[in-house]
Input
Amino acid sequence: MVRGVDSAGRTAVSFLFLFLRTPIMKILIIGGGGREHAIAWKLRQSASVEKIWCAPGNGGISRDAECVPLNVGNVEAAADLATKLGADLTIVGPELPLVQGITDEFKQRGLAILGPPKMAAQLEGSKIFAKQFMTRNGIPTAGVYGAFESARAACAKLKSVAWPLVVKADGLCAGKGVLVTSAASDAQEFIERLMNGDEFGDAGKRVLLEEAIAGKELSYIILTDGTNFIPLAPTRDHKRAFDNDEGPNTGGMGTYSTDGMLTRELERQILEEIVRPTLAGLRREEMEYRGFIFFGLMLTQDGPKVLEYNCRLGDPETQAILLRADFNFAAACMDAARGKLDGSSAKWIRGASVCVVMASEGYPSQPVLGKSIGGLEEAEKAREVVVFHAGTRHEENNYYTSGGRILGVTAVGNSLAEARRIAYDAASRIDIPGAHYRKDIGLSESNQAKVAEVRANG
Ligand code: AMP
Ligand code: GLY
Output
């Protein structure tokens, strides 16, 4: 069900596209994690895509795209590469190049790219910029106590805040820049670490203190050309390392997406109170945004509120989303980059998907790398399963671990319970010494669905 078109089929369809003069695209993806593998995998299913490169890619991505070396933080090198390859479109995965202005560099050189310009990427690159943007544009978010440029001023404010409190570093900190705490001593220690130490560099030089809000979190992502947009299937991430949300924060240990995750009313609220005002604010402030906007939401008793914006697709949200995508993702990306997105073009496979992240021993603090990965073929025997690679390298017909998050074992099913069963069955076939993964991805929502079903049946 989730496999791509076979190669003979692709060739035939490509000729048809040529005949119909529909552009055949060559696409460069920037990045090298599970998100970028999912993008490459999905693009490969499109008959209008002739060639895919991924820079720098990873061991598993080389199944779906030609991997080429690149330091993703070097935006000039990325533009040189796109020019040399003759890419018709570049899709940017991670935030770093966006925040560093890759889109502006490409546009100056007349190269097509999907991603916001540097100014708009500040929605992710600066929590203070994002908070001010939300306040100016009336977008619901957690209340703010202030933005501070010295640890002394921030710590002085601790005397007059309500607890629990949220302390946020202003800049990009790879998920380590936020603390939610009820203890003033912890808040003070964290502020001093951020602002006075070297650990976070410039990213910690300013901090935001904000109100802690309670509820369920939701990742709501759209693809936009600045005016029209496609809401992607909503997902929920599991950020803590271990079951029952225990252990340290990570880049994301797994996601799920299921029909009925949002009531119609909640989706309407998200669109009317958050998505449309964000797009209107960007236009009003003359930020031409063509790309993905990731709304990190808290579903509170007072309605949905924005915790954070990301200027890109999520990882591992993308893996669960693209497995359910039943439309020409490549064409949608190109249309958005050209400013001509048809907002009605997306269709989703009914049911649910689950992505279970397998991580290295010691992840997130000190991942042990270089282990061999066995059982991949066994795991991918079920046609509902795709194993996306993150920290892997390929050498002499074997895969080895090369990063903290190794694989995203992803499956679709008719229900969340079924998708979970298939994904976990596949994960159990993979053998990586010392690796760990959470056993409860999507579990509480799946249990709730079961209770609702039992109630409905009597
Ligand atoms: P952020 O990078 O802003 O999304 O923060 C990372 C995580 O911190 C979020 O996914 C939430 O779990 C938590 N968080 C951030 N802001 C708040 C808030 N205002 N109230 C409660 N939790 C928060
Ligand atoms: N999974 C959260 C993120 O991509 O930021």
User: Anything to note?
Assistant: The longest strand covers residues 291-300.
